[in-house]
Write a structure and sequence with these properties.
The chain is α/β, with parallel strands linked by helices and 240 residues long. The chain has a single domain (5-239), classed as BirA Bifunctional Protein, domain 2, CATH 3.30.930. It has helices at 15-37, 74-79, 116-132, 197-201, 207-222, 232-239; strands at residues 5-12, 48-54, 58-61, 83-86, 93-96, 100-106, 139-141, 144-149, 152-162, 165-173, 193-194, 226-230. Helix 1 links the parallel strand 1 (5-12) and strand 2. The chain is globular.
Length: 240
């Protein structure tokens, strides 16, 4: 059977409920794979999933991150209408908020390739090609995960993988309010700035347009068809 990735655009969503949802989708894929490997699974296994979401203001600290990279107190964060959440992905601290496209690929890498470093490079390549569509050369910096335009980071990445099924993913700054990054040391890197497609182009950019470019390049890079599967309700019906 040809591998397929189902696309769910779940719109705006608070961080913690979406994090919990990711875990549930990941666990379903793991459980179905285990059952198939034991020869007790009946029917057709669910496809991999790619979730798009736009979070309200939130700072997330990965399991290898340092709390001192959060430069504001909890009281000060309330003034910014922002949350602070410790999570289970790799990487340090980052920001999510309105105007940013967050992508959560929940993929069974046994269907693609079992190589985490290659997976991260593929995610970076998807964003590099997307940024190129807007006339800017993006790339990598040795030893640092994510995508950069010059010395400015435009897309942060951090993942978690269990039994070769991924979760978490990437956050591409499109029309993001970059002032929120002043509250942290982004990704724990002291000497690098952040940027966005809006800042680079000088124009507000429709998020849907960027999502379509991401999907196109994701399908190319991973050599896998991506089909629109619906919104949050369809995701819940299929996995919960």
């Amino acid at each position: 059977m040809e591998k397929t990735i189902d696309l769910y655009d779940i719109g705006q969503g608070s961080y913690k409920p979406v994090w919990d949802l990711q875990h549930k989708v990941q666990q379903v894929l793991i459980d179905e794979k285990r059952a198939e490997q034991k020869g007790v699974f009946e029917g057709i296994r669910k496809n991999d999933a790619l979730l798009f979401v736009e979070h309200p203001h939130v700072y997330t600290l990965g399991k290898s991150g340092a709390e001192e990279n959060m430069l504001r107190s909890m009281a000060e964060l309330q003034q910014w209408d922002a949350e602070f959440v410790k999570i289970d992905r790799g990487g340090d601290i980052t920001y999510h908020g309105p105007g940013q496209i967050v992508g959560y690929p929940i993929l069974d890498l046994d269907r693609h390739f079992t190589d985490i470093h290659k997976y991260l490079r593929f995610l970076e390549e998807v964003i590099i090609r997307t940024v190129a569509d807007y006339g800017f050369e993006a790339g990598r910096i040795d030893g640092l995960t994510g995508v950069w335009v010059g010395e400015q980071k435009i897309c942060a990445m951090g993942i978690r993988c269990s039994r070769w099924v991924t979760m978490h993913g990437f956050a591409l700054n499109v029309n993001t309010d970059l002032s929120y990054f002043s509250n942290i040391v982004p990704c724990g890197i002291q000497d690098k700035a952040v940027t966005s497609l809006q800042e680079l182009t000088g124009n507000h950019i429709e998020l849907q347009e960027v999502k379509e470019r991401i999907v196109f390049h994701f399908s190319e890079v991973f050599e896998t068809p991506i089909v629109k599967a619906g919104t949050l309700e369809e995701l819940k019906k299929n996995f919960l």
